[in-house]
Every structure is written in C-alpha cells, then in structure tokens.
Design goal:
Largest sheet: 6 strands, mixed
Radius of gyration: 24 Å
Order of helices and strands: EHEEHEHEEHEHEHEHEHH
Strand content: 15-25%
CATH superfamily of the largest domain: P-loop containing nucleotide triphosphate hydrolases
Structural class: alpha/beta
Strand order of the largest sheet: 2-3-1-4-5-6
Length: 292
C-alpha cells in the first residue's frame, strides 16, 4: 500500500513540531521557542487509525525571511511534490498563510486549517479547527485525526498495481532474481506490494527465480494467466512464456501505477526516428546509489 503523505505547514513557532509529536506520540521533531528550530523537512512514518500507513512531513516556518530561511522554504516547496494532503497551521502570519493556501489550491492538495494554541485562549481565524498539542493530547489528537480523515481523497489507495491484468483465481508467476543486486534477507517494495495485491484479489501468486522458471511452469496444471518479471530477466523469461500468457515487469506495473507510462509509451516512438547523429540521455530513476 502507498503511504499517505501528510505535510505540516505553518509560520515559525506556530507549533508544527509539537503537533507532529502529538500525532506520533513520540518526540519525533525538536521543539523549542527559538524560530527556525526545524530546518530540513523531518519525516516520520506511522499507522493512523482508518487512514492506514502515513508519513508526516514536518517543515520549516514559511515566514523566515533570512537567506537560510528562503533556502529552507525551497525545500518545503520541494516536499509538496510528495504530499497527498496538508495540515496548515493558521493564526500566526495571515498574509503568508493566505499565500500558502493559494499554493495548495494550485497544486490540488487538500488541506485542513488548524489553530494549534487553544490553550492560550486567543481568537482564532474563521474555518480553523482549534486544538492544543500540549493539553488534553488524547482528545486533541482525535480531533486532528478526524480532520485528516475529512480531507482524505476518496480514491486514495484505490489504484490497482495489476490494473485488471489479474483477477480472483488467476495464477500469476512472479520472477524475482535473488542475485548480488538483490537486498539480503528481504524483497524489494514493488515485489511485496504486488504479492499483497494478488493475495487481496484472491489470485494465486507463485514466486520463483529466473533459473527455475521452466521448472516452476512445469509444475502447474495449466499455463499462468500472467507472468511478472524483474526487468533484468526479460531476455531469459520471454522465450519461456506459454502461449496465451501475458508478460509484464514490475517496473512497467509501477510506471503505470505511480508514473506517466502513457507519456513514456508515446515518447518511445521517437526511437524509430533516431539517426547516427542523435544524442540520447538515459537516466535511471532508482533512489539507491548505483553499484557501478
């Protein structure tokens, strides 16, 4: 399952870090009265009731007008790229808060306006939900979680990885190399996510390695509906695919699930127009450092 990314935005000393600490029930973010305590975005993963696995992103105050502050704000803007929803702390700097509301609207990011200092008994802006992250924490945590659930996109988490390629009762063979490039003692996330989805569909996932694919297929009573392979094993897997069995890769599935696969497919048509003088840039999108 994809984690729900929740970004916390607000002015310096608006209580962003104490709010994250209240939500996670841990001292995740450093809290102090000094403006600018939070520098780079701080991420904390946890399970949120009814929303599932989440990542909270604590950010620097967006009203820090120093040169360093402006660099921090650029990191906050970059962090917005991964945000599904936002918690906007209000009541500290109305002009900047209004500007960030527009930024969120332009990016299509749902947000909740939270006034985080109810313990000070001050007048809060209209439309804001008033809480205190330092008093009655259990009660206020519940209020905040309810606010998050109200702005949760209705279709979040509903996108399918296999996208109709598999259904209940289908046998799906997953070819997963376990060589030197594979992580020791575990499977990579796309493999785990795909297996979990197939189990939820009540399909029948069968896992194997490339060198055992022929043996695996021979043990099945009938050809599998689908084979999903690691991209590096395509050349070895393709000749063994039974007639009528569909073949794809984890990379293709993830590009369709999270990326712009239609644009990639259209762009691939350019290959037929290449000449001897063409220049081609190949960039790998993995987040890990290349082995060589």
């Amino acid at each position: 399952m994809n984690r729900l990314h929740i970004i916390i935005l607000g002015a310096c000393n608006s209580g962003k870090s104490s709010l994250v600490n209240m939500l996670t029930d841990q001292s995740t973010s450093l809290v102090a009265d000094t403006p600018g305590t939070t520098t780079d975005p701080v991420r904390r993963s946890m399970e949120l009731p009814e929303a599932g696995p989440c990542v909270f992103i604590d950010t620097a105050g967006f009203d820090d007008d120093t040169e360093l502050g402006r660099q921090r704000i650029s990191l906050t803007l970059k962090a917005l790229d991964e945000a599904d929803i936002a918690i906007l702390l209000v009541g500290e700097n109305l002009d900047e808060e209004a500007r960030w509301k527009e930024i969120l609207k332009q990016r299509g990011i749902p947000y909740a306006e939270i006034a985080n200092k109810a313990d000070l008994n001050r007048t809060e802006p209209d439309n804001a939900i008033s809480i205190s992250s330092i008093r009655d924490r259990a009660k206020n945590r519940t209020i905040l979680i309810e606010a998050i659930l109200r702005i949760l996109p209705s279709d979040f988490g509903s996108r399918s990885i296999t996208a109709g390629l598999a259904k209940e009762g289908d046998t799906v063979v997953l070819v997963m190399p376990q060589d030197g490039s594979a992580p020791k003692g575990r499977l990579i996330l796309p493999q785990v996510q795909t297996i979990r989805e197939l189990l939820d569909l009540k399909a029948i996932p069968v896992c194997t390695v490339p060198e055992k694919l022929q043996d695996t297929l021979s043990t099945l009573n009938s050809a599998p509906s689908l084979i999903i392979t690691d991209s590096q094993a395509f050349a070895n897997v393709y000749p063994l695919v039974p007639e009528g069995t569909m073949l794809t890769s984890f990379s293709v599935l993830m590009a369709a699930h999270k990326g712009d696969i239609r644009f990639f497919a259209e762009s691939a048509q350019t290959i037929s127009k290449l000449t001897e003088s063409s220049h081609v840039l190949i960039a790998e999108a993995c987040t890990h450092a290349p082995q060589s």
